[in-house]
Design a protein that fits this description.
Blueprint lengths: L1 H12 L3 H40 L3 E4 L3 H4 L9 H9 L4 E16 L10 E8 L1 H4 L19 E5 H7 L6 E7 L5 E12 L4 H6 E5 H7 L8 E6 L5 H9 L8 E4 H4 L1 H39 L1 H9 L4 H37 L1 E2 H4 L6 E4 L2 E4 L1 E2 L5 H27 L3 H6 L1
Parallel strand pairs: 3-7, 4-6
Antiparallel strand pairs: 1-8, 1-9, 2-3, 2-5, 2-8, 4-7, 5-6, 10-13, 11-12
Helix pairs in contact: 1-13, 2-11, 2-13, 2-15, 11-13, 11-15, 13-15
Length: 417
């Protein structure tokens, strides 16, 4: 009985092919939009998270309580070796990277050249091994370009301002953690293009050991970056770090607390999912409700005959509902296939928003971070499932009224129509 009901419902979709194709097209377009746009949002979301939790913030940050506000050289985390030992003992911690920051003046240190005007810079001392891996400040450099003993890398914008090139010498003048003047000469190992604005525009990145010697900070750091196994567990990890004895008086922040402006941008993605799911609801409801209503009116005589020969009203209702669900599933299948194909293709080629808008820039800066204009969409199964569930639910809801009208027909009156 159920199989014959499905066959009848399927056959009825072919009675008015034009109307059926229009309804399927509207649903397919809605599903395609949902899959493709959410794929772009997922790609953008992933790139933003990689940037934020990578070279900029990490999963958890640790500082002196006043350092983020004042950025003074003498506001550091003391007893660094003990602190790092306690962090590395946590099973969920994958890496620990100390950093040193200090303002300085820099100029070309090439012998025989006329003295050039000095430019303000930001010294950044890092653990070279950790920061050269994926997500680190130095990840874009080859092994031969990494900072070494008395060798630094310089941000691209700063290098352009001072006309610096790899292999030249760089004079650095600053003030150490005790307030005494400090100066030294370093070799420029490479020029770095970074998505962290302060590194690209003012950065002089050196090894953590060189920075510690230059600034008289033998067992201190201004910041400790902790990477866990999953960025979604960062808040819980921050809580466990705060409970360690060495960190009771320090500021321990998850990435969401350390970069609230960027978190707000990421959270917009959740609303975009809702918006495009609503578009799909509207497209499906309009197409299915219209098709179901017109089909019901056209088949009044047929329904009357079925009821007259003893067909139960419930089967008539099921016939209309199944017809609408089949219509919705065909549309969502077509839309899913097309949307998935587009996402898979563009996930390899990327979509350059700048080129589409006639902009020549490669990236856009926000809250100290540069984000690429090129997005690589990511196909996620849940976006297809969202559409499938939404269309199935919409199909049932949109066809309830036409189905109830068909079930309440008077057989004799319906057969005369």
């Amino acid at each position: 009985m159920q199989g014959s009901t499905v066959r009848i419902a399927w056959r009825n979709l072919g009675r008015n092919k034009r109307r059926t194709l229009l309804a399927v097209g509207a649903i397919a377009l809605g599903q395609l939009t949902l899959v493709f746009v959410n794929g772009m949002m997922a790609g953008s979301f992933h790139d933003m998270l990689e940037t934020i939790t990578g070279p900029l913030v990490g999963h958890v940050q640790i500082h002196h309580p006043e350092w983020r506000e004042e950025r003074a050289v003498d506001l550091y985390v003391d007893n660094l070796a003990q602190a790092m030992s306690e962090l590395e003992a946590l099973p969920e911690v994958e890496s620990v990277s100390p950093r040193i920051y200090a303002p300085a003046l820099v100029a070309s240190g090439e012998p025989g050249e006329e003295p050039a005007d000095a430019e303000p810079a930001m010294l950044l001392g890092v653990d070279v091994d950790n920061e050269s891996h994926k997500g680190g400040v130095l990840a874009s450099l080859d092994a031969a370009e990494l900072p070494g003993e008395r060798a630094v890398v310089v941000g691209k914008v700063l290098a352009n301002r001072l006309d610096l090139k790899a292999g030249q010498h760089l004079a650095v003048i600053g003030q150490d953690a005790d307030g005494f003047p400090a100066s030294d000469l370093f070799t420029i190992q490479a020029i770095i293009e970074s998505n962290v604005d302060i590194v690209k525009t003012m950065g002089v990145v050196m090894s953590f050991a060189d920075a510690g010697r230059f600034l008289a900070m033998p067992d201190q750091a201004h910041e400790i970056i902790v990477q866990g196994g999953d960025y979604r567990e960062a808040q819980a990890l921050a809580g466990r770090v705060s409970a360690l004895p060495a960190f009771g008086q320090l500021e321990v922040l998850s990435w969401r607390e350390a970069a609230p402006e960027l978190v707000r941008m990421i959270d917009i993605k959740g609303w975009m999912d809702v918006i495009f799911l609503a578009i799909l609801f509207v497209a499906a409801a309009a197409g299915i409700a219209n098709t179901a209503m017109m089909s019901t009116f056209e088949r009044t005589h047929e329904f009357g005959m079925l009821l007259a020969v003893g067909t139960r009203p419930g089967r008539v209702v099921g016939m209309v509902l199944i017809e609408s669900v089949i219509l919705g599933l065909v549309g969502v299948t077509v839309g899913s296939i097309l949307g998935s194909a587009i996402v898979l293709i563009t996930s390899q080629t990327g979509i350059n928003y700048a080129a589409l808008g006639g902009i020549s820039a490669e990236d856009i800066g926000y809250a100290g971070v540069s984000f690429s204009y090129t997005i690589f969409p990511r196909l996620e199964l849940r976006h297809i499932v969202y559409g499938l569930c939404a269309v199935t639910l919409t199909s049932l809801l949109a066809s309830l009224w036409p189905a109830s009208l068909a079930a309440r027909l008077e057989p004799a009156e319906a057969m005369r129509s």
